Structures are given as structure tokens and as C-alpha cells.
Amino acid sequence: MKTVIIFDHPYTARASENIPHHRSFLAALLKRVTSTLIERGVQVDLIDLHADHFNPTMTAQDLSHWRQGIPCNSQVADYQQRIAAADQVIFMFPVWWELMPAMTKGFIDKVYAKNILYTAKNMKTKLNQPKIEVITTMTTPNWLYRIFFGSPLKKALFRGMFLKTRLIHFKWHNIAGLDQKSSRQKERILQSFSI
């Protein structure tokens, strides 16, 4: 079994340690998820977008390639091959302004490309129905995100991408209200978190 993890945090995956001004709870979650998967005998392939210096901007040339079903560049082609070979794909990112950061959005725009990973004619994925997991962190309380904001991430990713292209096996793990949680609560979340 092969799992590809797409990790998006400016501090990179190295921010899992408790170093002031360079720590990330999301990176600590990544460390937990990775070790759990490896213990189960799963092959883990990490795409660390910031460490890879991925450019999320869609240029005119990128769009021209995208429309022709050609990878934007060699990095994007590599990402596409890795995802196509995956049994499971995990997206990990913080929620900023109620949606995914630009790096994740650009990754989706450039990598999940028509006539490469899905067919444009019938909007059907070319992937072999991998299990999709989305792991997010946010400071907004869960009830406020769902009721007041209307879960925009769920609409964008699950309805606008996954269901639209018939990726039907997905689950969202959201750690909400993170800034109101104590160190002890965060540690409990880390210790009990599983996918």
C-alpha cells in the first residue's frame, strides 16, 4: 500500500518539534500520521510543498499546457505520477480565511489536471479510487465554521473537486479552535489521532 501525503505549511515538515517561532501543530500531526502508517507497513511518500519550493501560480504558459493535457513542468509531472500510483492520498494544511492556503489551491489547480488525472469530457477521475483523507487545523471553532461560514472548504474540496470528478472515498479530519486549546489538550489530540 502506498500513501502520498501533500503537506502545506510554510515552516515545512521539519516544524514538528516544539521550537518557539518555528513550530507547527500540523507538522506534529504529520509526524504522528507518518509514524502510524509506517508501523502498519504502509509506504509513505511525502510531498512537502514549501520544502520543494512549489510555485502555486498558474502562468499563461502553465494554463496553455493544462488546456492541452500537458504537465506544466517536470515537478508537476513528478507529482502527477506519484499521485497516480497511490492507494491513499492525504492532504494536510492549515485553514486560513476559511479555505486552503494558496499553495494547496495551486497544487490542486496545476497537478489535478484535466486529461492527465481526470477526463475533461465526462469529469471522471483517471485515478484508481484512492482513499482521500484531508487533515486540517484552524483557529475558528468548529460550530462557527459550520453554521456561520457554511463549511466553505467542504464545498470547495468535497463537492467542487472530489465528488465532481467521482473520487468517492474521502474523509475530513479537522482540528478546530486550535488556539483555544491548552498544551495538554494538544498533546492528547496528537496521542489519540489516527486515520
TrEMBL record:
This is NADPH-dependent FMN reductase family protein. Residues 1-186 form the Flavodoxin-like fold domain. The lineage of its organism: Bacteria, Bacillati, Bacillota, Bacilli, Lactobacillales. It comes from the Bacteria. Keywords: Oxidoreductase. GO terms for molecular function: NAD(P)H dehydrogenase (quinone) activity. One of its GO terms (cellular component) is cytosol. InterPro entries: Flavodoxin_fold, Flavoprotein-like_sf, NAD(P)H_dehydrogenase_qn. Belongs to the NAD(P)H dehydrogenase (quinone) family.
